[in-house]
Batch of 4 targets.
Target 1
Amino acid sequence: MNFQLTEEQEMLRKMVRDFAQKDVEPTAAERDEAERFDRDIFDKMAELGLTGIPWPEEYGGIGADFVSYVIAVEELSRVCASTGVTLSAHLSLASWPIYKYGNEEQKKTFLSLLATGEALGAYALSEPGSGSDAAGMKTVAKKDGDEYILNGNKVWITNGGVADIYIVFALTDPEARHKGISAFIVEKGTEGFTTGKKERKLGIRSSPTTELIFENCRIPKENLLGEEGEGFKIAMTTLDGGRNGIAAQALGIAQGALDAAADYAKEREQFGKPIVANQGISFKLADMATEIEASRLLTYQAAWLESEGQPYGKASAMSKLFAGDAAMRITTEAVQVFGGYGYTKDYPVERYMRDAKITQIYEGTNEIQRLVIGRMLTK
Ligand code: CAA
Ligand code: FAD
């Protein structure tokens, strides 16, 4: 057993950390306040190769592994959780299913555009009436000659509106529930495909979340991903890896909050001494650091399993569950360490606390992670 990161993984961490501090952190609070997505940041990530970390060079990637990918999401989220999820949704939700299920033509066309960052990706599973019960979707795709006609609404779509390529799940056989779901690659600008309401959110406010509307939207049959009826399996296996991206996001948020709290606890004086001299504060920091280390081990392990071609679905559900719950506790405690100042926008910890909450909700709520883990234990 070797817990040492490779030289390449350490170099990637340093590169992403430098980039995050120089190009992401300075505008994070302003973008959060203004709910502003910044495409320039994504373009700079593309220049660094981050948009295609795990994909082979022949498809525009940099041929690194999934541990490198989670390190990148962690480092970005340490300063801006919105930027972390932009990359996570792009890479593990939009690009992965094309890498895994796409034919050669789809990989050459769509995966390459995503890997090089010429295109930004999104993943559209959830609907107004089907969140946790993903198989309960209503969006339909009716075959008509060489095309499919999509009708329906998707909600809560990360990168909605700003993305160029969408993985959309729809029923090709509405009577067959999950066995009748198929996956499609839909390009921005396709006639009949529009973006609806943009959500106003508690956290990750510079990551756009929107509704997608399909009204007689015609998709060439070449854009069917995998086989007809294979869509639910594609959706679920995509989430197996995606969830670990959210674990990495939660880990980064928690680390950012601890760093800020530890610095503050050394500087802030009350009763004539730094507040960290009180065990009540130093024990908080110790608990935070311990939970972060456990989150990191679970997250890196799940990514390592994926890189090694071993089963990683349970490990990924566990990392997301643990790191998400830990991030919520840690960021709440970070605000506590800052006292009243932590409750204001003068310091970043209130943003970390608002951002942490989503990691317990999306890519399957943490109740659903427990359901997934429980089913795997008893299968
Ligand atoms: N891998 C492969 N196959 C799987 C699978 C997996 N991980 N999970 C389920 N399946 C298969 C089952 O084997 C079964 O196949 P058969 O019919 O051939 O036997 C089939 O799928 C149906 O499985 P279930 O009976 O377990 O399905 P279910 O309807 O009970 O739902 C669920 C299972 C795990 C609760 C699923 O609905 C789920 O994951 N819900 C949460 C939805 C979710 O995570 N949404 C995230 C949206 S994306 C997002 O949020 C992005 C973002 O934030 C950035
Ligand atoms: P519901 O399913 O209605 O759940 C409500 C509550 O009931 C939750 O606490 C839940 O845990 C609980 N519950 C439900 N069923 C059970 C059960 N069987 N056992 C125990 N408890 C249960 N979706 C996408 O497809 N693509 C995206 O890019 C995307 N991005 C998102 C971004 C944001 C900011 C948000 C808020 C959501 C996003 N989602 C996305 C949707 C997200 O995955 C869903 O919100 C989530 O899966 C929960 O679904 P729901 O909101 O409908 O809640």
Note: The chain has ten helices and ten strands.
Target 2
Amino acid sequence: MKIAIDGPAGAGKSTVAQRVAKRLGMLYVDTGAMYRAATLTALTRGCSIEDEQCLRDLLDTIDLTLEIHDGMQRVYVDGEDVTEAIRSLEVTRRVSTVAAHPLVREKLVDMQRRIASRKNVVMDGRDIGTSVLPDAELKVFLTASIEERARRRLQELEQKGVKAEYGELLRDIEERDRKDSEREIAPLKQAKDAVLVDTTGCSIDEVVDRIVCLHREKI
Ligand code: C5P
């Protein structure tokens, strides 16, 4: 069984996907974390985010692993836990450039498909339903108004004690969605057979219940 959850930035995909996976006893895979880890590694090891071949060579040499601890995904690069570091503002602002390179996507999509071939997964990202797992039994396109997504991001950062400005977050989200939707390869797009779930004004529990219900209808 494979569940694909795609959608724009800040729609709550990871929180929702993680909880759905826990409820259904499936493995949660956050593919955005893989693109983020590639971006962080490029930044720390001096590889230009515009240099596709350098990025691919880097990905071919590093050991990128995802592990689940207490239901939460942790990300490691060559054994170093980078789970928090990949959420930085700098990585967030650059990740869409890295993710637009075909050689980067080829490598990471291959890893994603290999994981999904061994386990029942709930995988979240931008192109899971359209490209990574086109045969997923359930596809959900999760969205929310841009204002709500920026508000949620602000709250999340404030809870971590990070200062941020609403208008700036809104612009960053808009820009990232634009880049992700306009890229040539596997752009952010709702799959034809995906169910659109608008989470504006909904609680996390409501959204999780809805997806678990959709899953029940499929089995
Ligand atoms: O999901 P998250 O916001 O962490 O994703 C970070 C970035 O990684 C996205 O803005 C997008 O550029 C890229 N991404 C992608 N394909 C995916 C998942 C993420 O291109 N399946």
Note: The pocket of cytidine-5'-monophosphate is lined by residues 9, 31-32, 35-36, 95-96, 99, 125-128, 176, 180 (CB under 6 Å).
Target 3
Amino acid sequence: MFENLSDKLDRAFKVLKGQGTITEINVAETMKEIRKALLDADVNYKTAKAFTDDVRQKALGNNVLTSISPGQLLTKLMNDELTSLMGGTTADLNFPATPTVILIAGLNGAGKTTFTGKLANYLKTQRNKKPLLVADDIYRPAAIDQLEVLGQQIGIPVYANRESKDPVAIAREGIAQAKQNGQNVVIIDTAGRLAIDEAMMVEIEQVKDAVKPHEILFVVDSMTGQDAVNTAKVFNDRLDFTGVVLTKLDGDTRGGAALSIKSVVNKPIKFIGTGEKMEALDVFHPDRMASRILG
Ligand code: GDP
């Protein structure tokens, strides 16, 4: 995860690390290198520029130049700024009602159905919840099959209605079943498309309006870089989601999405997917991710 970015940041810092004295010019040059490393990692231009300008200003303002170990101070500053760029603190899910309704949105292939299973498994094994999964993709029978297989694998019930072509009705039926059976979290896996599509957006808006979910999690493939951020923006404008799930961080993703999404849509990353298995899910901690990136 982010090896390339870590290497590049490390190289950019080499000049400063361990030096007894550094100059304003050193700092400016290092920030230029850092900005390049961020852009190479697919961080969007505005974010990268704002970030390095900020670090530079703080570095100069915090007397980094006159401190005993300027390299160390700058590393700490970078760590703090990266953490804040990714949202600062860990953003937990909210469970304000019984059942709590969580709507899952995103494009096809992003990892929605896999995440739906992973989230249910996490809530059951680590948060002591009783989830129900709802298969709300009326276009792909295979998507229902996939969710049922996952449900069996993790021992969590799945509500599906293969006869119905009405996603709003299916979502409502799922919630009614959860109430009847005492399940306290309902996770609704919705239909995606290969690209942003008006019909898909209208459909998911209708489901949102009907069931008033407490959480709307937008799932996006981190490997798609700046596209991930652009897609997030469109979904957020329509759905005003409550959190982001970044999938496939186990691959050789360059990291740009993790670093840009919060500042572009101002919604926290809540989870990261780190593999295909049901256990491959982590709660997102901005501070840990920052330390990881800085190595
Ligand atoms: P959906 O169309 O959005 O429901 O996407 P799926 O859940 O079917 O996932 C698409 C593909 O991505 C599947 O092959 C998943 O196994 C894979 N996948 C999902 N999440 C992850 C992840 O975090 N890491 C990796 N390596 N693969 C993932």
Note: The first strand starts at residue 100 and ends at 105.
Target 4
Amino acid sequence: MTSNSIDSLLHEERRFPPSPDFTEGSVASPALYEQAKADRLAFWADRAREQLHWHTPFTQTLDWSNPPFAKWFADGTLNVAYNCLDRHVLAGNGDRVAIHWEGEPGDTRTLTYAELTSEVSKAANALAALGIGQGDRVAIYLPVIPEAVIAMLAVARLGAVHSVVFGGFSAESLRSRIDDASAKLVITADGGWRKGKVFPLKPAVDAALADNASTVEHVLVVRRGENDVQWNERDLWWHEVVSSASAEHEAEAFEAENPLFILYTSGTTGKPKGILHTSGGYLTQASFTHKNVFDLHPEKDVYWCTADVGWITGHSYVVYGPLANGATQVLYEGTPDTPHPGRWWEIIEKYGVTIFYTAPTAIRSFMKLGREIPDGFDLSSIRVLGSVGEPINPEAWIWYRDVIGAGKAPIVDTWWQTETGAIMISALPGITTLKPGSAQVPIPGIKIDILGEDGTRVDPPQGGLLVVSEPWPSMLRGIWGDPERFADTYWSRFSTPEAYKYFAGDGAHVDADGDIWLLGRVDDVMNVSGHRLSTTEIESALVSHPIVAEAAVVGAADEQTGQAVVAFVILRSEHADAQTPDEASTLLRAHVASAIGAIARPRQVFVVTELPKTRSGKIMRRLLQDVAEGREVGDTTTLADTAVMQIISDKLK
Ligand code: WTA
């Protein structure tokens, strides 16, 4: 975020108190804050008992004897899928719709809780027959179709571990994730629908496994795109294997700390981190926050979170939170503007969506198209709006409330991360007086502090670095296979032997009322359309191309996507004259997309002859960011060669 927008953010004075009718029926109550304050651990133990069915009740809430490795509810046992499925059927809600699925071409499928339970049971039996059991890793590479949810829950039901890889990632990214987790099985589809076309997925899996040297034994393929696929010995059709399996499957109980999933996310180095989440604590916080932050009344609400299941938001707020709460939800496969720019609003009207959760980047793109498009649909069912992924600017907040929320729906701006597993900072609808642009307050039971560089708490109003000061139930349990990186990345900056503090990598300002305003990442992680990308990872992709000698990548402010990837490259001398800068740029943009995935494709690639470096050889990305954002270049006195920025700026004029 630029210093300009921070200033305007902090001068935001508009306030929106909850309306009395909303407060009257709201799920959350101020008592939650009081109870959590009086006894934080007892508060979470109560939530775990209230939210979940335990096969064996736990007696221990938190074991923090070996920080930063936490155990929550460790002597309890449960089955995560049972909590999301069977128990709702047993409670008499088998006929309630769990999923209203809408395919991009307009085909639909409705699954009740009873139907979803049988589908997951069949899939669990089929996976067990393929040798999948407790602790085995299964990679899932699917479009947003019901089978994605079914596959995740079937893996969870068996006590196995899923690693969902977003369908937009490349074969290479898929392979590195398969290898890192030693996955035994890949579940994919022939293809999925996106922007009016089938995009093939199976060829990427084939390419990822082409050398037959991975740990993968089978590939289970869902038929969705009806596109032709190549068939290998290890491949099996989902409809053949799963349909013939029995719909009876008894859910076995596993320990609360049984691993549930690994989800890879970008860090500050080139290698993505496999964030590990476990069962009991994760499900407690995902379901508790889903219910209270969105004011969920499962018997009457229709909830819709637009995230892809390939991201943490899809895990916690499409799959685990809503299903554990017995919610009815919409699941949509495609893009917001296919076949017309009002598709999302049409879906809201069609299903009577009451709670809607999306990202600021989407809101800004709708703002740009104008309010006539949403105004053409009946959105009067909406009563709660949510935002996630990046700071929401007050203008977008106000537009969201006025145009989508009829000027009255409370907006919850939810701050959290892949690592935190569930929402950490958010207003509670019906309780909090809302401030546009601020994520506001830690949810009950969560301890957040804003620290200065020296580790002491800043005096509000002031900015600093955001830390979580006490362990929380849905916290990551580690980085898959790399306990040292886990300790270094998150716990080394501010922890003392007496007090372990989790450093989130975000800057934040705390105002005089104690409300928190997120200011973006303080490390080499970019946020493009709410997705995390690592500058280093893109730099390594660029230098892996034979024409590139050196590369530097920055996240430049972008009106639409929050940040955009901008790369500066030096070509190898033998190639420098062989192509025009335009040709090189086109080539390299495509190269990054194929190495990592289309989301990482740079907005611009500038060919330069030098990069600004300090005397110790560190690239000064801050200066390149100035250039990329069209600003006057800042302080260059620490550069080894102070003329270099002039050369770069002149060249790009
Ligand atoms: C950013 C997404 C401001 C933040 C759930 C964080 C936000 C990173 C917000 C995590 C928000 C997420 N306001 N910033 N409401 N929500 N972020 O792991 O920088 O994909 O560290 O998790 O997104 O991204 P991740």
Note: The first helix runs from residue 3 to 10.
